[in-house]
Specification:
The protein is mainly alpha-helical. The chain has two helices and no strands. The radius of gyration is 61 Å and the shape is rod-shaped. Pfam families: Muted (PF14942).
């Protein structure tokens, strides 16, 4: 019985081991409950996100993207119309320029034709004037020849 007395008085291992088991059990249960609560909260958050937040975000994104897409299409259409107007304006300017150039060419040709006609008239008048002068000089020579014989 000395061994039993010794074990009751001096050997505290069974009591300490029991206390350790109790402490570990309490710690694990409390920790387990805390982790269980954290996991439950995460599960609830994920469920709420999947069921409520995600569809709202998808709908908002869809609506905003549709609005942005419509605005981009409207802007693209306006730019396309502006480009068409600019192209038409450039074509109109080119046509006007071509018409002015043709008009200038026609005017130049008409001017050159008038100049040739005037040149021909002046040449004709000059030729006639030269003939008149020749006739006049030949008459003057004849008359002078009459007076020289004296």
């Amino acid at each position: 019985d000395v061994g039993e007395i010794y074990s009751r008085l001096l050997d505290h291992r069974p009591v300490i081991q029991g206390e350790i088991r109790y402490f570990v059990k309490e710690f694990e249960e409390k920790r387990g409950l805390r982790e269980l609560r954290v996991l439950e909260n995460l599960k609830n958050t994920i469920f709420e996100t999947n069921e409520h937040v995600l569809p709202k975000c998808e709908q908002a994104m869809h609506d905003n993207l549709n609005e942005a897409f419509k605005r981009l299409q409207a802007a693209n259409d306006m730019i396309h119309r502006l480009q068409e107007r600019e192209h038409e304006e450039m074509k109109l300017q080119a046509d006007k320029l071509m018409a002015r150039e043709e008009k200038c060419v026609a005017h130049w040709e008409e001017l050159m034709k008038e100049q040739r006609n005037k040149q021909a008239e002046v040449d004709e008048e000059h030729r006639k004037a030269m003939e008149r002068l020749k006739e006049q000089y030949s008459e003057m020579e004849k008359e002078l020849a009459k007076y020289v014989s004296f």
